[in-house]
Amino acid sequence: MPDYFSSYSVVGLLAVVGVLFVAVAFGAGRLLRPMVPTPEKLLTYECGVDPVGEGWAHTQVRYYVYAFLYVIFAVDSVFLFPWATVFAAQGYGAATLVEMFLFLGFLAVGLLYAYRKGVLEWT
Fold this sequence. Notes:
It is a single chain. By secondary structure, the chain is an all-alpha fold. Helix content is about 65%, strand content about 0%. The N and C termini lie far apart (about 65 Å).
């Protein structure tokens, strides 16, 4: 049992060292940087062009469906490969087969949603 907790203490110590490293780096940057605010520096900066007009702009989010489709197929591929290795193991056949068909059912619902939205049509 002590060996079990010592492995976690190494991970905890590494996490603390990492957090301290980041905190020291940010603190040193804050202490060492010159701070001379001017009106030009306080302006909103966008790609080298001075801002003109209001800050509010209407944008249309049309690509969420493509992101949704990507997630469907990426998750599908991520889970199918490990499933194939577990399915081949002794004693896991029926349970993993039912779980995978349930998972593929959820993916089919997502694909049906995309089909109904007309995303799969190239126009």
